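Folding Query — how this chain folds
Tokens — whole-number codes for backbone shape
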Amino acid sequence: MAVKTLWTIDQACGHTAEADLSDRPADRRAGYARWLSARGCTGCWRAARGEDAESKAEWLAKKRAAEQAEADEWSEQYRMPSLEGTDRAIAWGTRCRHQVVSAAYAALVLEGTTSEAEWEAIEDAVRPLTRASWWIDQRDADPADLPELLDAATESDRPNENPHF
């Protein structure tokens, strides 16, 4: 007698489904059927995944809004100029600039040997860098590298009123 290929699966969600396991080797069908029975059905899995993705998107939106508010407040407090780029890049770049500069302050001044006067010079070098994409590109940089990164920035990263064509 041949090993059956159609299995009735009583799934963990309480639903029952027919599974065609003919594409599996005969000696692996029973184990796979047992594995399937420990899972929810496809419909329940999709429903749970959809709710989960929705709640994750909602959480991420709230997190981004809080980060944006913090970055905007920081930019105003430290007189940082607005960034240039698309609306999306400006918002992202503003958050990146806040995170990079704040982390650099912690690494260089609070944990390092940089004086407040030296930090003010670094902060002054940050202000002319108004290209949002530059800040987005630096988001994963080591915070202690900020002075070197500022030195490496080109004139195209520091737009001014009279650009050279």
